[in-house]
Every structure is written in structure tokens, then in C-alpha cells.
């Protein structure tokens, strides 16, 4: 997403240049003219906020500025809430726990080091059997010890977090 293709409905409206995030690279830039990385994958939340600020600016003659500022101020918390929910869904977790962010950050760091396929990583993790101490995802990593360090403590609670009894 960049500044000319954001939809309030959450649709992607672009004819290019665009790309797909295969190997997980937080700074991935698909636009060949974006030399500074303004629209990189990891900058997408900030770009969305900037776009919403421009929309608020446009609406300011018609909507009270306080109401617009209140809506903009809620953006980050709403984003973090929904992003957290989506990431827990990707892990198959039914509930939120305080260690979720650290767990995801560790996984993303591992994925970035390994240049793991973003979609495949979560798909392979979903194939982990409910009471298994191992995951088919392990074989996708070169540094299996690092994967074990991440997955090992999680494997005992994996079934519970996924709602299995």
C-alpha cells in the first residue's frame, strides 16, 4: 500500500508496481521507485496513519476537528488489537496471553534471519499436531536449534492455546 491506493473498506486497489512478500523481510520494498523504503512492509501501519491524517485534513471543513483527532488517536490501539487477533489466529491460538507479542517478535526475528516464506511458515505451523512436541515447520529452518529454542517452550502449551483439551 502507498498513498494512492488505500481503501476505507480494506481493499487493495493498485495496478502496480506491486509484489508479494514471499521470504519474510520486514523492510521489503516492492515499489522500484521507493528508494527510501517509505512504503516498505514494516512501514505499512505508519503509511496507513499518514493516509488517514490526510483524509481527516480533507474532511475538516465538514467534521469537527476534535472528532477527527479522536478517531486518529484511536488508530494505533485499534490496529494493535486487530493485528494481535490476526496473528493469534495465524498461530491457532484461541486466547490472548501477555507473552504473545514476545513470542511473535521472536518468531519474526527467526523468520527474518532465515528468510522464511511468510505464508508457508504459518501454514506449516498449523500442521503441528495437537499434543506434539515437534512441528513440521522445524524442517523448514536451517538453524533448527534456534527454532527449537522458540518452539520448545511453546510446545507444552500449544494444544491448550489452540483450544484442544
UniProtKB/TrEMBL annotation:
Entry keyword annotation includes Nucleotide-binding: yes
GO MF annotation: an example: metal ion binding
Needed cofactors: Mg(2+)
InterPro entries: SelO
Pfam families to which the protein is assigned, alphabetical: SelO (PF02696)
Keyword field: ATP-binding, Magnesium, Metal-binding, Nucleotide-binding, Nucleotidyltransferase, Transferase
Family recorded in the similarity comment: Belongs to the SELO family.
Protein known as: Putative cytoplasmic protein YdiU
Chain's gene name: ydiU_4
Amino acid at each position: 500500500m502507498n498513498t494512492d491506493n488505500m481503501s476505507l473498506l480494506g481493499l487493495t486497489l493498485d495496478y502496480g508496481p506491486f509484489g508479494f512478500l514471499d521470504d519474510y523481510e520486514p523492510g521489503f520494498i516492492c515499489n522500484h521507485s521507493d528508494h527510501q523504503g517509505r512504503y516498505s512492509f514494516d512501514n505499512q501501519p505508519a503509511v496507513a496513519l499518514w493516509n488517514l491524517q490526510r483524509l481527516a485534513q480533507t474532511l475538516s471543513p465538514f467534521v469537527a476537528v476534535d472528532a477527527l483527532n479522536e478517531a486518529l488517536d484511536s488508530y494505533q490501539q485499534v490496529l494493535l488489537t486487530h493485528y494481535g487477533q490476526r496473528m493469534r489466529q495465524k498461530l491457532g491460538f484461541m486466547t490472548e496471553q501477555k507473552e504473545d507479542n514476545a513470542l511473535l517478535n521472536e518468531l519474526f526475528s527467526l523468520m527474518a534471519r532465515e528468510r522464511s516464506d511468510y505464508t508457508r511458515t504459518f501454514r506449516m505451523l498449523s500442521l503441528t499436531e495437537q499434543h506434539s512436541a515437534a512441528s513440521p515447520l522445524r524442517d523448514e529452518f536451517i538453524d533448527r536449534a534456534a527454532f527449537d529454542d522458540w518452539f520448545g517452550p511453546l510446545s507444552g502449551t500449544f494444544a491448550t492455546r489452540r483450544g484442544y483439551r
